Queue: 4 jobs
Job 1
Amino acid sequence: MTDILLSNENMQYINIATKITKTDIIDCVIQEDKLIFIVQQGQLGAAIGIKAKNLEKLRGLFKKNIKFVEFHPDKEQFIINLCKPYKIKKVELEGNNDSYVAKVDVEVSDKSKIIGKGGRNIEIIRQLAQRHHSFKDVQIK
């Protein structure tokens, strides 16, 4: 894991979300209409809340779509977590310890969704993979 530099805005979102969810949030990515929070392993359910109560509360508070992703120390599993809710067939890791390329094989019906309009979804996946593990790139097959 590399050192993650968070802006004041990121820290404010993390602090508020931590108070509401009572979980350990370790990272946050901000887009115009979306916030993606990385929570510690094992805390995804608590972050979302019973009947998605926390998710809805944060959505109303921030006026943005909210996504929680569970951190995982295993690189392959972390990529799968980043790609949820899309169906991943297989993740292949190429490279060595300090620079991996993840090749993600997805269902044909999910390929355009996981890439996103103008590539925005895959860019977030790449950014978070690089921030939390030693990935050089994430590619969709």
Job 2
Amino acid sequence: MAENVWRIYLSGEIHTDWRERIVEGSAGLPAEFYSPVTDHEASDLCGEQILGAEELTFWRDRKGAGINSVRTNTLIETADIVVVRFGPKYKQWNAAFDAGYASALGKPIITLHDEEHDHALKEVDAAARATARTPEQIVEILKYVILK
């Protein structure tokens, strides 16, 4: 299986180094990694910056969400594996949406979160093929499914 290049989409929280740890740990694997725009301000403001200012926050956010969904949906649709990280801070509604979208498309999902979120994420975890606690466990899963 190693001759294929695997497309792995890394969804979820943007405030820690979990993506970098997975990419660095996966060096040498035939894998390409993709993610949403992880610059919080750029992601939030892209709609206004491209399409013009909005008086109401709702419409500003709606413009940005629409533009960001072009990237997110396309990359999830073309992914071989979707990893969804739920961090300890903030409520990552977008990550939950990404997991649901990936599940609806039949994409294999691996969730990544701390034990404290097990109950809140029980439905998301039920749709996942695996639930990891650390980025290093994700790396080990990737090595196993890609190289074995």
Job 3
Amino acid sequence: MHYESLLKEARQRRIDVHEMPLLPATKGLYAERTVWINRAIPTNTEKACILAEELGHYYTTTGNILDQTDVRNRKQELRARQWAYERLVPLEGIVDAFLARVKGRHEIADFLGVTEEFLQSAIDRYKDRYGLYAYVGDKHIVIFEPLSVAELFVAQTSR
């Protein structure tokens, strides 16, 4: 589902998306309103993760960032990934999985429509950004290690 909706978003933004043979280590590329996705990627779930990151480049990146020895380029790469994580694995989505009684990383990844590797990368990035946990609204905390969700209860004071 994510892959089709991301393809639709790309079309709306006038971004061409092509699946074609690429070097095995290259899963996707973005340049000048065109995304190339490695045709060898076996599932639409993984293609969605790749396409989300490449769309992240559209929204967050400027110029040629292929030289990853340049810290400025690495920062732009991280921003594009962050965009993809927030898009496909929002903290609210982890809470929704908890509320749906989904257990384990495999089932959470399936619930969110991402690969387990992408889910873990998103969790690692959130942990780098927020620390060991993050508040989601005023009712939940997502705990990143071990991955869990806690529901907050506010004590009622009597008057």
Job 4
Amino acid sequence: MSINSNFPNKDILEITFLNEPDFYHISYQNRDFLIVAKDKDINTNLIGITITGEVYYLTLADTRVCYIANNIDVFIAELLAFDDYMKHEPNDLSDFSDELQLSQFANEFRNIILKLDKSAFEGNNEEDTFWAEVCEEIEYGIL
């Protein structure tokens, strides 16, 4: 599988993209993935692309597979949207005074992601998707 995408040249959400010569294949939970990125600090958390092009977040330590996007270009657009969205909002979400404000902030971001990928929040349940977890962290003021 050849990737012709322009990856962000900085870490976003602690995700570090590999250079194309460093991509590698793994079989995980009966599926084959091309690994194109990893968590900056946790080498067992990986970003993998299936043969059909869907992108997943793999956490090898606890055997989780979370849907991210229907293709790598959408994922890159989502990451850049996250980066841009967070730049235009308070640097510290704890500045928000109540849960309602945090919830509204997360919902606005959900809508941005849904414009890029209508299936971004569809998994076995909401926690099975990468962007659902990111939005939950926004709601709790973690990000």
